[in-house]
Amino acid sequence: xxxxxHTSGFWPSLYDPLRHMGARLxxxxxxxxxxxxxxxxxxxxxxxPGVAEEDIDLSVEDGVVTLxxxxxxxxxxxxxxxxxxxxxxxSFSRSxxxxxxxxxxxxxxxxxxxxxxxxxxxxxxxxxxxxxVKIARG
Length: 138
Description:
CATH class: Mainly Beta
Largest sheet: 4 strands, antiparallel
Number of domains: 1
Number of strands: 7
Shape: elongated
Order of helices and strands: HHEEEEEEE
Oligomer: single chain
CATH topology: Immunoglobulin-like
Strand order of the largest sheet: 1-2-7-6
Distance between the termini: 68 Å
Structural class: mainly beta
């Protein structure tokens, strides 16, 4: 018969739902996105209603597009009685790995009607370079 210790049996299972709560909360707050592409560019659209342009940071590094930002609350609490609040506030971050044919220097973005649209140009399709390799005699 194998005995379980008190620390490895009951207690870890009690805390398992809380173990990754921070990551799950970040996923819940993260804005919804969709990605598409055609023969000239890729497009990533991200829903950012209520987020000001100056609260958005968009960067490209090592083949990854990273979007960070914050949706700030603007409500005043004085004298109001709140019955419910379904709006989400706080910081968010999303990262998207670019395909190999994406041009990290050809990235542009537009914020319109609460949707950030990021366009990433594709590199031109060039024929692969070939070179004749000389074989030495031994």
